[in-house]
Amino acid sequence: MATGGATVKAVALIAGDPNVKGSLHFFQDAT
Length: 31
Known about the structure:
Elements: H1 2-15, H2 18-30
């Protein structure tokens, strides 16, 4: 799970998509 989260984080940073970043925030908050 942690590895997957890291991957999503990297993708969000590379993509720079505000929608993805929003989801990231949700995941971080859930964790």
